[in-house]
Amino acid sequence: MSTESSSTPIQPIRFFHRGKIVDVSGVHPTRSVLDWLREDARCTGTKEGCNEGDCGACTVVIGELATDAHAPGAVDGLQLQTVNACIQFLPTLHGKALFTVEDLKGQCASQCKPKTEAPVKHAVRPLHPVQQAMVDCHGSQCGFCTPGFVMSLWATYEHHQAEGTQPTRQQLADDLSGNLCRCTGYRPILDAGQRMFDLPAVRLDTAPVVAALTALKNDGLDYAAPLGVRIDHFHAPKTIAQLAALRVQKPRAQLLAGSTDVGLWVNKQFRDLGDIIYVGDVAEMKTVEERADELYIGAGASLEAAFGALVERVPSLADVWLRFASPPIRHAGTMGGNVANGSPIGDSPPVLMSLDTEIELRRGDVVRRMPLPAFYLDYMKNELQPGEFVQGLAVPLSAMRRQVRAYKISKRFDCDISALCAGFAIELEAGSDTVKAVRLAFGGMAATVKRAANAEAALVGKPWTQASVATAKLALAQDFKPLSDMRASADYRLQVAQNLIQRLWLETRTQDALSLEETSVWSVMPHVVAKVAAEGL
Prior knowledge:
By secondary structure, this protein is α+β, with helices and mostly antiparallel strands. Helix content is 34%, strand content 20%. Strands 2-1-6-3-5-4 form a six-stranded mixed beta sheet. α3 crosses α6, α16 (453-459) runs antiparallel to α17 and α17 runs antiparallel to α18. The longest helix has 19 residues, at 490-508. The chain is globular. The N and C termini lie far apart (54 Å). Mean pLDDT is 92; it is low at 529-537.
C-alpha cells in the first residue's frame, strides 16, 4: 500500500459475465464477488447467507480455459467449478468467466421453444432443466437457498452431460454437500438432481466463452484502488519467478490463494489487508505430478486436485477428501494454503505428516525443504522467514505403500470443522507382525498439528497386537493435553484419539482385519465402501 499514485497504468479487472467482457475499476481489491453482483451488477439471484463460505446460498460457477480436456470439471474447452461468491475477492476473476443463476434463463431462451403460441411478450419462457426439475420435484420451499443449489446442480449437469454419464444419488449428495437447506430435508432436491437428466437437454454454448477468454490474454494483473488517502494494490503474477521477486520486494503484503480463510478475515474480522499478492494465476504453483520418488503438489494446487491425486494412490483417504469442507471450498482453497495457515484443526497436515511429507519454501531464488512437523513452531507460528513463501509439498511414494488411514471426527458428517483429525500410517516387518514404522499424527489435540512421539515409540519394534495398542493408548496421554472448546471437551478428544488407534489396529491387524464397511457406522454412505471394494482393499 502507498499514498502515492502508481507510475504505471492501473489495469482494470476484466472477466466474462452475462455474455460479454466486463471491465471493472475503482472497487477495492477486497470487494467480494457477491457484493459486486448484488450491488453493482444488480444480479440479485445470488444470495448472501452466512457470508463465510458455509451455507452455499452464494454459489456461483467460475469458468477458466481448460488446459486438459480430460481433467475433472472440463466441459468443451472450459474448466467449470463451483465457488462461494461471498469470500472470493473480485480481482481474482480477472481472465475468467463468471456464471450465475441469471445465465440459465438465457441458455434456455436460446435453445427451448416457448410453452405457448402467444405473442413473444406474453410467452412463458421454459426453465432450464435444472430449474424445471426443482419445480417438478418440489425442491424449493422458502427459496432463499435455491439459487445456490441450482448452480451446484448446473455444474454437475454440465459435467455429466459432457461425459455422457449420470450421477448416482450419492454423487449428487457429495456435490451438494456445500449447500444447506433448512426446509426440504434434501430428499426432493436429490430427486431433482436425478430428474434434470430426464428432461430435454440444454447445454452451455462454450464457444463464445472460450473465444472471449482467449482474447483476454491474461498476462497477469496489477490492480489498485484507493482506500481513503491510501492506494491498495492487488498483484497477480503469472510465473513463480515473478512471484518470488514480488514477495521479496513486498514481504509484508498479504499472500492470497483460494481466499477460503483470508476472505473470512475481511468479512468477519473486518481486517485491513493492505497490499495483496495473489498466487492463483501462477500455473507452476498448481502442478501435481510424480517426480522421481515423490508426488509433488504445488502450493497453489486446489484441495480438490491435491486430494484427488493422493486418493488415486491411497484410496483409503477418500473419506477425509470428500468430508473436507465442501466442493466450492475445495475448488478454491489450496492444500498449500491449508498447510501454511497453520490451524491446529486443519485436515491436510495430519494426513501429510503420516506420509512423511516435506514442505518446500522459497525466498527469491533460494529453495529449502524441511519435514512438515518442523515447520510448525507454536500456535499459528511457523518457520517462514520475511519474503519467503510455501512453494510446494513433496510426498514420498514409498510412504504411500504403507497401510494408511485418515479419520475425521466432527459434529456434522459433511462440511464441518473437525473436533480432531488423525492421519495414520503403519508398516510391519515382512512376514511378521512386528511394527517396523508407524506415524500417528493428530490435529485438534494441541496448539499445532503434531505427531504422537510417545505413542509411536510404544509401538515400533513391538508386535502389532491388542496389548501393544493398549500401551500406545496410555502413552498418548503423555503426548497431548488437549483443550476443551465448543467442538469437544479435552476428555472426549483424548478418548476418541485413543479409540482411533484401536480402530487402526482393527483394520490393519494381521489376522481377521475388519473391512471399512465393518468399522464404519455410515452404512448408508457408500462412496468410500464402493471405492475400497473396487480397489480390492
